Amino acid sequence: MVWGPQAHAADVDVAIVFAVDFSSSIDPKIADLQREGHAAALTSPEIIAAITRNYVGCISVAYFEWSSPGHARTVLPWTNICGLEDARAAASVISKEGDTGITRRGRRGTSVSSAIDIGSLLLDQFPGKAARKVIDISSNGENNDGLPVQPSRLNAIAKGYTINAIAIPMEDESPDNTLASYFAKSVIGGSQAFVITTKGPDDYVMALRRKLVTEVSMNVDHPL
Fold it and tell me: Looking at the whole model, is its pTM more than 0.70?
């Protein structure tokens, strides 16, 4: 297991940055999905079990919202989660302080490159040691503002960070040009990187929970 020696010297098993889209295309319905979905996933029995059976038994998470360049805000700074009580406290902050999608004026476009850059900076500033570091992007759109994605993506990968994504497809999405395909080709990267997509609003929490279990688990062979 490649994580063994690293994990024993680490403060947490995994440090995960939740980079959540709050651009102008995020309406209240999708905003609720993302905010409450992350809160529900963090406190789910599957996630708590995955955390506690790891080497260290703790993860650390940060949660920020992003849109166009210069438009981002931190909802949850780095917070260690070592059990259900910690997870509930983090989930409460996300649920209360996260975007509601009601006020969207001035948010403009979707800059995935900015999301990666901010996530990478947060991981650079992580106040401890983590056996794995992950940027976890949730979005319903492609990069359409700011710099191209590729330099940001390559910079994060070069630092040893993994970029994963959950794609929220639009209702009129073409099966020949899906958002998940775009993320797979142009956004995700690093060790064991993957993208997961939702089948509909009711599937978001379940899909997010599956993704987090995979990210949290130090068993790299853990299936989606």
Answer: yes
Question: Side chain identity at 155, as an amino acid letter?
Answer: N
**Distance, CA of 121 to chain centre:** 14
Query: Which range, 11-25, 169-183, 195-209, has the best average confidence (pLDDT)?
Result: 11-25
The DSSP call for residue 11 is: S
pLDDT digits (tens, 9 = 90+) for 69-89: 989 999 999 999 999 999 999
Nearest to 80 by CA among 45, 130, 40, 34: 130
Tokens at residue 64, please? 């920020």
**Which of the 8 DSSP states describes residue 94?**
H
Q: Which amino acid is at 126?
A: F
Q: What is the residue type of 92? A: S
Q: And the tokens for 36?
A: 């409450």
DSSP string, 162-219: EEEEEE---TT--TTS-HHHHHHHHT-BSTT--EEE-SSGGGHHHHHHHHHHHHH-S-
> How far apart are alpha carbons 47 and 217 in whole angstroms?
9
- Report the distance separating Cα 189 and Cα 197, nearest Å: 16
Neighbours of 32 (CB within 10 A): 18
Cα angle at 109 between 164 and 106, to 5 degrees? 125
DSSP annotation of 83 reads S
